[in-house]
Amino acid sequence: MHLSDRIQALKISPIRRLIPYADEAKAKGKKVYHLNIGQPDIKTPDEYFEAIRNFHPHTVAYQPSQGIKELREAISGYYKAMGVPYEPDEVYVTCGGSEALQFAVMILCDPGDEILVPEPFYANYNTFAKLALAKLTPIPTTAETGFHLPPENVIESLINSKTRAFWISHPCNPTGVSYTPDEVKMLCRLAKKHDIFIIADEVYREFIYEAGDFMSFGAVEDARDRVIMVDSVSKRFSACGARIGCIAIKNKAFLAEVMKLCQGRLSVSQVEQVGAAALYRTPKSYLQEVNAEYKIRRDVLYKGLKEIDGVVCHEPKGAFYTMVKLPVDDSEKFIIWLLQNFDINGETTMAAPGSGFYAEPGLGMDEVRMAYVLKKEDLEKALNILKNALEVYPGRAEAIKA
């Protein structure tokens, strides 16, 4: 039996890889506080369910490959309200933000081409790049500097004849960093200078916790023809299972190529598009309340982590993640040990191993990504478990000596 080199080069998701250990712990009666996956527990808006309940077509039929008009108009209106003038015909609906990212890479890259991405990065970027036989070239960032970008000359030195784009999660999964307006303008300036694109993954745009800390790549007017905007209803409206995203750009030639891929997969679910269109009619108060809740959770997590001896972390400014450096020899081994060998009153916790968010082998071995998608009380319990576990973990002494 032959299996392609392409598929064998892919890795199992670091976010989900250790789920069997969690399932085993639960089977033994343990409660597991999941900090490993960004599944919001916030209620999906009623507008979504009402729209689907009231939808009774004679036939659930194929839809326009670029998405239904109602949804594209709703997304266009959302962008215009934030000062980014995408027209409905510049917005194409996709099967989640993931398909939009795949489309972008497939359109930009031939085998062997490169995309620059701040490291650590969302693990599935690696999957999408490898499916296109492209390579991710890391832009190094560190926990000590809050994962902000290095100077412009450092980034520019990484650009070569094979470079096709910057790939930016903003605000960032997994680090929680929100890039400053100066950083956004710098990348746009470099993209124009070197005639490359920016894949702007802004699905966490609404999760910014201090006023004035966010500038969309779409707001840089003279770079809009090379900013590939990727978005989704998954996290913004707590509708991960709806699988509705979009790709938008002020570049007609690029959109013509997107249409080829949209037609190749025929169309996105009609029912989910109807529900998603209604989500964009959700009152602003919903997002304001959700943002306030995540800020409380962010503050609880950051305060708790800062009180644990040996932990290095920054205050996340956006999304609902943070990368944390732990005083351990190997974070994956530590998480497995937590699930198999440690609990407090029958309760334990888990995070995602940091190494899975790096392209360079050996990096992130002492880091974990944490998602603060649990309610305040559960986060406090998870942090207490982490603090006590680190005090007795056998691998801690070796990490400190190193």
Provide a descriptive summary of the structure in words.
This protein has 402 residues and is an alpha/beta fold. Helix content is 38%, strand content 14%. It contains 14 helices and twelve strands. The protein has helices at 5-8, 19-27, 46-53, 69-81, 96-108, 124-131, 152-156, 181-193, 252-264, 270-279, 284-306, 331-341, 376-392, 396-401; strands at 31-34, 91-94, 114-119, 135-140, 163-169, 197-201, 227-232, 245-248, 321-325, 347-350, 352-353, 367-371. Strands 2-8-7-6-5-3-4 form a seven-stranded mixed sheet, sandwiched between helices. Strands 9-12-11 form a three-stranded antiparallel sheet, covered by helices on one side. A two-stranded parallel ribbon has the order 1-10. Strand 3 (114-119), helix 6 (124-131) and strand 4 form a beta-alpha-beta unit. Helix 5 (96-108) packs across helix 6.
What attributes characterize this protein structure?
Aspartate Aminotransferase, domain 1; 38% helix; 2 domains; alpha/beta; globular; 402 residues; 3-stranded antiparallel β-sheet; 14 helices; 12 strands; Aspartate Aminotransferase, domain 2
Short description:
With 402 residues, the protein is α/β, with parallel strands linked by helices. It folds into two domains: 5-43 and 285-401, Alpha-Beta Complex (Aspartate Aminotransferase, domain 1); 46-279, Aspartate Aminotransferase, domain 2 (3-Layer(aba) Sandwich). It is built from 14 helices and twelve strands.
